[in-house]
Amino acid sequence: MALTGELETDTEIKAPADKFWKILRSQLHLLPNICPDKIQKIEVLEGDWEIQEGSVRQWNYTIGGKSESIKGTVESIDEENMSMMFKVLDGELLNDYKSYKFTPQAIPKEEGCLVKWTAEYEKASEGGPDPHDYMELAINATKDIESHLLNA
Predict the structure, then answer these.
(1) How far apart are CA 74 and CA 53, in angstroms?
(2) Is pLDDT at 92 greater than 60 in this prediction?
């Protein structure tokens, strides 16, 4: 059984890609209000709300009915393709994974956009879980952001 893996999921939303990207790029502070049942708090530890490579944030969230937190940094940003890669530095997630990176990307469509989430991970042990719960959290948060943008 492989210890490293990659999961990818695509979610079509009706909101424009540039507006979804703006939330991720510079308005993460809105997420606890947009999806409070999923994300309770985001704190800037290094940098500011305008995400830059090397900026660090602490995320408090709920997954599977449990409160967890992660500390993560932005490894790379691709403005042209509206994507960025986050690397998890610390938190409960690393009980199951030696390393974990996730990349959201907003891909414009004629109407709305396709939001692609990719998780790259290395399990801490051979019997460890694949991160399906974390991908589900990302999909559900994406849908909450869509609702927020369409009702704004």
Answers:
(1) 5
(2) yes
